[in-house]
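User: quick one, sequence for these tokens?
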């Protein structure tokens, strides 16, 4: 599943080939994604120029002079460029034909993704369209971005006050902070030495300092690794493969802990696989 680092990598990968280019046409072959693609979207976006791109949580915004095309990759989506006339395969649901001769293709086998529109009101200048899309209902209640200063130990400590919820479930809640998916929650808790089942409200300020630092580290490292795949977003032979990462706990239940060699244990929290070391994580 594309997590925040993959979404950020996708945004960086497609940005140079979209920015400043006009949308000649949009072709929808399958509108039934998580929410239906608005039927008037091809008419709306025709002739608009992609002025800039941004990411909020796992949403990518393509900002134009009239509003923002909002893309979510869902469980299995990808966005990449194909040459003109590249025949679509079964799961290639949407194409944007651009003025630079490239086609931006959206592929999504499981169709949990989304392509939506946020209209910027007429008085809004181009400069503020980038901010305006954050008022969209899907984005308005999102917590802070994990790699910004707004996400810090003090913030998280105050949010966790009196919460009985397990710390892992807590940091995966996008109302608290966006983009800490299952893999990164497992990894950050291991690096912090915090047991994933521990109640969020019982974690002290010092531990939150370590945890926030570890969350930032695992996400930054993954984005850095993703950077090596950027060239895959423009090419002839198909979509980018999401990058493999070196992980300490995720997917390693039953294997020895990299620190103390105890056997890593697995449990379920909110139906998500939770892997931890009972000796290193308290
Ligand atoms: Zn251990």
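Assistant:
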């Amino acid at each position: 599943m594309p997590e925040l680092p993959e979404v950020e990598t996708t945004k960086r990968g497609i940005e140079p080939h979209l920015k400043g280019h006009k949308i000649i046409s949009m072709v929808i072959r399958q509108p039934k994604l998580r929410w239906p693609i608005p039927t008037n979207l091809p008419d709306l976006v025709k002739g608009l120029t992609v002025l800039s791109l941004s990411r909020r949580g796992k949403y990518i915004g393509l900002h134009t002079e009239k509003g923002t095309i909002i893309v979510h990759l869902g469980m299995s989506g990808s966005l990449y460029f194909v040459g003109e006339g590249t025949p679509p395969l079964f799961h290639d649901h949407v194409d944007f034909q651009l003025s630079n001769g490239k086609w931006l293709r959206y592929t999504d086998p499981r169709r949990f993704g989304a392509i939506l529109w946020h209209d910027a009101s007429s008085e809004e200048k181009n400069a503020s369209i980038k901010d305006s899309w954050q008022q969209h209902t899907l984005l308005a209640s999102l917590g802070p971005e994990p790699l910004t200063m707004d996400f810090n130990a003090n913030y998280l400590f105050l949010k966790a006050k009196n919460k009985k919820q397990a710390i892992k479930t807590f940091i995966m809640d996008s109302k608290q902070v966006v983009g800490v998916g299952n893999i990164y929650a497992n990894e950050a808790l291991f690096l912090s030495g915090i047991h994933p089942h521990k109640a969020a409200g019982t974690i002290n300020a010092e531990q939150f300092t370590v945890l926030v630092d570890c969350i930032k580290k695992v996400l930054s490292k993954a984005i850095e690794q993703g950077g090596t795949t950027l060239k895959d977003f423009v090419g002839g032979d198909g979509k980018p493969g999401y990058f493999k990462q070196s992980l300490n706990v995720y997917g390693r239940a039953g294997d020895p802990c990299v620190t103390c060699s105890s056997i890593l244990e697995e449990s379920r929290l909110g139906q998500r696989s939770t892997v931890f070391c009972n000796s290193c994580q308290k």
